[in-house]
Amino acid sequence: MELVRTVTAAGVTTVTLHSPANRNALSTPLMRQLLDALAAAVADPLVRAVVISHTGPVFCSGADLKETAEARASGRVPAELLADVLAAIWELPKPVLARVAGPARAGGLGLIAAADIAVCTRAATFAFSEVRLGVIPAVISATVLPRLAPRAAAELYLTGDVFDGVRAAEIGLVTAAVEAEGLDAAVGAYTDSLVRGGPLALAGAKQLLRRRPAESVRADLAELSERSAGYFRSSEGREGVAAFREKRPASWVPAPQETSAR
């Protein structure tokens, strides 16, 4: 059964959660297909950025509770595989953007937080609903807590209350909240910008966002200066500077092209 669909056009792969019957719940089959789709995007040299989207009115309802109940007595619960999914998104060497046109709960918020950029509708709703089920948002904390303001995290983790897209943007869960009719335009504006970055530079910039500083400022500056010089000396860096001086697109910028689906 196809639970994840992919379409690639002009350097952007859109990975769509396609299980609307159960509100795109994070079942084991869906997560395995999602991992395969992400791996394929990494392997494709023409892909510059990845968008995670959804079919149906719900972005993601969190763990597949029916599967979880059945698995508790027999083996690995879906929440454990979620760790692999979040790590794959967080560590992906290409920018990942979450397109959120509807509600997200629990594990779905982990997906959103793992993405580098997230755009939602103002009316989308969110909740860390775990405590109301007698469990905790443990796995998703790896991606969620680095994004959220601490006071907001405490409030929303402990209450399980629902909040909207505007609040999600205010506390750092998403990058921007827009009106529903402007969602695709906002996503397109971001992807248009992302594909203009050099592939190696994009991966390097993501590493900067994740790195831990050295013990001293001088040691940190020495390491960062060495990184910077390496990029300026690279063939990609030389091409980027030349393209800027010659007022032309760099060689890696994809031209509009046909759409392919997998």
From TrEMBL:
It comes from the Bacteria. This is Enoyl-CoA hydratase. One of its GO terms (molecular function) is catalytic activity. Belongs to the enoyl-CoA hydratase/isomerase family.
